[in-house]
Amino acid sequence: MKLSSLLSQIGYFAALSCASVVESESVEQATQSPAASAYWFENVKRTGGTTFRNVKEYGAKGDGVTDDTAAIQKAIAGRGGGGGFFSTTRNLVYFPAGTYVVSSGLKASSWSVFQGDPINRPVIKASAGFSGTVLLRGSVGASSGLADFFRTVKDLVFDTTAVPSSKSLAIILWSLSQGSQIQNVLFKMAPGAGATGHIGIQSVGANSPTFLNDLEFQGGHIGMSISDTQYQFKTMVFKGCTIGIKVNQMLVGTGQNLHFDGVGTGVDSTATGTAHFNLIDSTAKNTKVVFSGAGSAVNTVALQNVKVDATTVRIGGASSLTGSVAAGQTWLKGGKYAAGAAGKSVSPGELIPTPRGANLVDSTGAFVTVVPPTYKEFTVDQVINVKESGARGDGTSDDTAAIQAAVTAAAAKGSLLFFPFGTYIISDTIKVPKNSRLVGEAWTQLRATGAKFGSIGSPRPMIKIGEPGDVGLAQMSTFILDIKSSCPGLKLLEINMAGTKPGDVGFYDIHFPLNQGGVIAKSAGCTSAGNCPSVHVSVHMTPTSSVYWENTWVSDAGGSQSKTANGGGFLVESQGGTWINGLGSEHSAMYQIAIHKAKGVYLGVMQSESAYWQVQTKAAVFNPGSWASALLPGEPNFSWCATGDGSCRVGLYQYVTDSTDVHLYSGGFWNFPCASPTCQTHATVYANNTKLFVWGQGVINSVNMIAEQRGGAVTAAVPRTANVGSNFNGLTPSVLAAYLRQSA
């Protein structure tokens, strides 16, 4: 039973207690000697090379007695090939049910997955004499993880209760950036001891991640100690921790569906390196302070739908709010641009009506959250391996026909379609019908190429989910979608389908790192991004769609060396409800996300960078460049910019037009490698919207955080100079708590 289902049936205090009991029982069950698992992923025929590594095949016993440290590390180290950003190898370390005793720290490699059996989660238990200060080192470096990507830890229990509570011990060191995730993990820790003790998740230095989800922390000094640029924390229970979340450094962050039970401080954001935090749809029981912030004017907070039985907010050591914040209300401290107001005002703490559309919320008024599917209810007989339909996944063979045949067959049977790790070449549209469930392995790659994706005037999807007006189920988990060659007429993913309920059409751990290693530029002989378009848009959600997302990253993986232009990141036209959790979208030429004529959009966090080449060479004068005569509805034409104004023509982080009921949280927008605060004229442009709410925005090196478009003209609405924040890793961001000028 999951916390989300409990909360929908019973009171929130009881839900906290019951959730903890249920998880504790699962831990106890996992310590027994289990029978063979029924989990399909453990038993499916493996055809993905050496990607999958069952730790028991490397000598681990999982009997709760034997020291399994060396065997587990051997499984981790058993990968072949390199492990850099453009690695073509993966490492999926799998733990069958059992208890695995470790006496010293484990160290993950890049592109690695630590995964357990979700039916009976295995326990990784630190011995009483554990040596070291970190149980699992998820990050490679000792400090900054800005260039460290793609790790997953899921479906596991970590237990440090045998280690003295006075010992400083981090269960997972997670100084990582995009493409990384910890999911469905329980942290059992010895109770905190004064100023020291156990920490569930710790990050240090400078990092750029987006998402952690569905976690529980029992005991310990700190549940999570965070030092990152932005984050969304979704569906978490903190029980008996001294501090639930310690924010040491963060530009913007969102805590959604968090539940504190018997905690000293829920969220401690008193450090000087923090800016804005949103706490929404959350509860606290027997917790002294739910949110504690610094007294600085640039330390801002928004609370929505937060139910408590004690002090809610403490700022600068003094109580600022006692009691709950009802659904449909926001308690705000910080700078805001209110509806009808000409400029900025600063709220010392006030309630603001904040309606949410019915298609976005559950029966309690909370934004819908979904438990990511593991398909543990399926047996191995209900799984089709795409390679058994003739797909090769070797990075060379054209697998289009074989994949289409397998997709059609799996949907007809209601089966899972499993893609063992590999690179599958696709030269024409794969049509995914209703009743489809596609599952990858350690980020299986689907790679587009060919003439059918070459027409700028006729954009064509590689993966097409349903036809316009379709209602049904279609889900994808754990894939990378990218390109083998320049495809200027390509949509990597087009979604037309809506579900009968939220999450029926869902995408989990799906990423778009385009132009890996600059291969497109090299193969096409590109001399500049302006004359070398690579894709039109990564994701297009059409008007008839309704889609749920968790943990996705769109990026030009060529980075500062890129000589290609990706047109757009996310294009959202959905009118049936859209939920986007943990979004990183960066380096696209025209926009990172465009929302047009949409009805009901929730965005929990968004990390973005402008395209490096636009600032380095002022090649932004090309925007909208190659796509000028083929813009899709809702894409910006930059007609408000002078022809040679490269700063004005830098791609927008958010372009929101003619939409209603749009809720944007925690936008962290970065312009590199420019060192001037005037590198980019407009970070975002909003036009002709209603019920648009923006909560928390941090921007680096843009003249205007927000501009408004009326007709063809764009004017500044939120200038950088009126919202200058404090030093953040040597940079000076502009920080805004709330934009409400189009909220009526």
TrEMBL record:
Cross-referenced Gene3D superfamilies: Single-stranded right-handed beta-helix, Pectin lyase-like
Question: Sorted alphabetically, which keywords does the UniProt record give?
Answer: Hydrolase, Signal
> What Pfam families has UniProt attached to this entry?
Pect-lyase_RHGA_epim
Q: Which residues form the Rhamnogalacturonase A/B/Epimerase-like pectate lyase domain?
A: 52-268, 384-558
Q: Which residues form the signal peptide?
A: 1-24
Statement: the UniProt record of this protein carries the keyword Hydrolase: yes
Molecular function as annotated in GO: polygalacturonase activity
Respond yes or no to whether keyword Calcium is given for this record: no
Name this polypeptide is given: Glycoside hydrolase family 55 protein
